[in-house]
Amino acid sequence: MVDRKKRAQELIKYHSYASGAFGLIPVPGADVAAVSVAQLNLIHKLAKLYEIEFAQERTRAIIGALMGGVMPGALSSSVLGSAVKAVPFIGTALGVAVMPALSLAATQALGRVFAQHFETGGTLLDFDVEAMREHFRKEFEAARNEAKDEAGEAPAAAPQMEEQPVQKAG
Predict the structure, then answer these.
(1) Where do the domains of the chain lie?
(2) Which residues, 6+ apart, have CB-to-CB distance to 16 below 8 Å?
(3) 157 neighbors 97 (Cβ within 8 angstroms)
(4) Which of 3, 88, 139, 144 lies at 20 to 30 Å from 74 by C-alpha?
């Protein structure tokens, strides 16, 4: 059987990339809704993995409190990124530049925070949003930086071939 921590990391990675992809949805609001569903689904699967009773409304409240209390700037960018998609042509391009990275980072941070909480024996009923806010903020910043690093990696330079002296026939 696969180790729970490893399986949790796989779930987080999968849902984070899905959230990033959902950030590309060109319809304002639909992207945010799809990302929210992915995040809720991730926590549901983590709860199942750790044999924790899942409560959808409690989980939604926790997610909202964590994200709203830690990332007002990022959330406003996310909402702005979604809303700006309504502007023909340029809006879609601007929204596509903002939403995928924020969606991926937020989902990854949520997954990491919940997995750690469940790993240490916590449940949804004893999840202390106030105590976890700073941890979530740090995980969110780490995930954003990881995404920037991955996106900003320059391709490796093509290997240079050594010049060989040209030999004249003769």
Answers:
(1) 4-150
(2) 104, 105, 107, 108, 111, 143
(3) no
(4) 88
Give Cβ neighbours of residue 104 (< 8 Å, ≥ 6 apart).
Answer: 16, 17, 19, 20, 23, 143, 147
Give the model's confidence band at 29: pLDDT under 50 very low, under 70 low, under 90 confident, else very high: confident
What is the separation of C-alpha 147 from the centre of its chain, rounded to a whole number of angstroms?
9
Residue with tokens 């780490």: 142
Lowest-pLDDT choice from 8-17, 51-60, 91-100:
91-100
Res 90 pLDDT > 60: no
Greater model confidence, 109 or 77: 109
Residue 94 corresponds to which amino acid? L
* Alpha-carbon span 33 to 127, nearest angstrom: 24
> Which is nearest to 136 in space by CA: 50, 63, 56?
63
**Contact by Cβ (8 Å): 117, 131:** no
Selection from 23, 24, 141 nearest residue 71 by Cα = 141
Give the pLDDT band of residue 167 (cuts 50, 70, 90).
very low
